[in-house]
Design goal:
CATH superfamily: NADH Oxidase
Structural class: alpha+beta
CATH class: Alpha Beta
CATH architecture: 3-Layer(aba) Sandwich
Helix content: 40-55%
Oligomer: single chain
Largest sheet: 5 strands, antiparallel
CATH topology: NADH Oxidase
């Protein structure tokens, strides 16, 4: 493999919010092509229970956008209260955090305008079945979802992995005719992105987040 190309794809696939092009149409064939790539991802027990709800109807997108914005406002108020109570000392990079927050607000205001929405879904419900069942179910749809985002990125389309619509999961299921035994995992706004390219983001070094043999042991002589 061309590791330079692969590494660039993996390190520059950003959550795209402010740079989504709401005016340029997204071809259905590209969506189908990326979804065909996505379903090559691993799935628990090879069950292949993925389902992908592609939304292009303007009225349905607008309604989902309204619900997303309502959910975002509730979430934002909660975060503000938590930050005030904690003194907001947890973020290493306040400037980057401010940019992310600003872009999140922008997406919330414009979610209903994206050319395409994709809701990755999976057969089954596991709310009451414990951590193992939940991990198994989501572990069967999240790899395909990430593969989809990577495939879109490679073709000049941006997206963002969002979940705030799930506050109104039942309303959106009714709007789209999604059966009650289906779990919605995420909501991806999909559009061509403006600008030239993306750069790797600032991250806490992996060495500080990786433990060897015992929790909290970050260094290894191996």
């Amino acid at each position: 493999m061309d590791l330079k190309c692969v590494d660039k794809l993996l390190t520059t696939t950003r959550s795209v919010r402010r740079r989504l092009d709401f005016e340029r149409p997204v071809e259905a064939e590209i969506i189908r092509e990326c979804l065909q790539i996505a379903i090559q991802a691993p799935t628990g027990g090879n069950a292949q229970g993925w389902r992908f709800m592609v939304v292009t109807d303007a009225q349905k997108k607008a309604r989902i956008g309204e619900l997303y914005q309502e959910s975002f406002l509730i979430y934002a108020r909660s975060r503000e209260e938590q930050s005030a109570a904690a003194g907001d000392q947890r973020q290493r990079d306040q400037e980057q955090s401010a940019r992310v927050a600003k872009s999140a607000v922008y997406l919330a205001r414009h979610m209903g305008e994206v050319p395409v929405m994709i809701i990755p879904c999976i057969d089954g419900r596991v709310e009451e079945r414990g951590a193992m069942a939940q991990a198994s179910l989501y572990g069967s749809i999240l790899p395909a979802t990430w593969s989809l985002i990577l495939a879109l990125r490679a073709r000049g389309l941006g997206s963002a992995y969002t979940t705030l619509h799930l506050r109104y999961e039942s309303e959106i299921a009714e709007l789209l005719g999604i059966p009650s035994n289906i779990t919605q995992a995420a909501l991806l706004p999909v559009a061509y992105f403006s600008g030239e390219d993306f750069k790797p983001a600032k991250r806490i070094p992996a060495a500080e987040l990786t433990y060897w043999d015992e929790w909290g042991t970050v260094a290894s002589n191996q």
